[in-house]
Amino acid sequence: MLLLDEMLALNLLTADQHTEIGAWVRQARTPDRILQMPTHLWKVLEGASVLMDFDPDGVDSGGATATLH
To answer: Would the pTM of this model clear 0.85, i.e. be above it?
Structure first.
């Protein structure tokens, strides 16, 4: 959840979006279930990821590992 917390701190997510995405990820239990996140949350998460230059394969452009957990 550190990445979500950072997105919130950078004002890339609202408090409500942070809460909704965090709750979804915590209850999902599997990567396949996470991928079933509602579209409106995916769009927000993708937009914030682009602004952070986050690589969805888990490695940012600087080579540091990043995760949603």
So the answer is: no
